[in-house]
């Protein structure tokens, strides 16, 4: 499966390739902010809110793997050990990097 479901995204952009690119670039930029919010979270609410926001953004563009990882993070209990949180953030970062590489490849014709 591709890191971004372009058919899903095309339904919302009506096939406008320039708009797809703009939406995906915005997703990539915003996702880094959510990732940093997760890393800096000092409360379970901050942790859950950042994961929830990222999950919604990922679903909107069809980044299903990223959305699944974010959903898993969002659903974690409050007492999850810090090392487990770190591993989850690392997994999320890997999914985001995969999506970002896919988006970057769209410009050279390799992403679609």
Describe this protein with a few key phrases.
112 residues; single chain; 5 helices; mainly alpha; elongated
Structure description:
By secondary structure, the chain is mainly α. It is 77% helix and 0% strand. It contains five helices and no strands. The chain has helices at 6-13, 17-40, 44-61, 64-74, 82-106. The N and C termini lie close together (12 Å).
From the spread of the alpha carbons, the general shape counts as: elongated
Helix-and-strand structural type: mainly alpha
What average pLDDT do the residues reach?
A: 91
Order of SSEs, N→C? HHHHH
- Gyration radius, rounded: 14 Å
Q: Which oligomeric form is depicted? A: single chain
The gist of it:
By secondary structure, this protein is mostly helical.
What order do the helices and strands come in, and which of them pair?
Layout: H1 6-13, H2 17-40, H3 44-61, H4 64-74, H5 82-106
Helix pairs in contact: 2-3, 2-5, 3-4, 4-5
């Amino acid at each position: 499966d591709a890191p971004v479901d372009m058919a899903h995204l095309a339904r919302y952009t009506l096939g406008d390739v320039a708009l797809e690119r703009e939406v995906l670039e915005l997703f990539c930029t915003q996702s880094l902010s959510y990732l940093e919010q997760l890393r800096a979270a000092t409360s379970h609410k901050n942790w859950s809110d950042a994961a929830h926001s990222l999950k919604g953004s990922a679903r909107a563009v069809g980044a299903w793997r990223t959305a699944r990882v974010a959903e898993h993070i969002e659903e974690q209990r409050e007492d999850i050990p810090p090392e487990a949180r770190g591993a989850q953030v690392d997994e999320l970062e890997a999914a985001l990097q995969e999506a970002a590489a896919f988006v970057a490849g769209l410009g050279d014709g390799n992403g679609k």
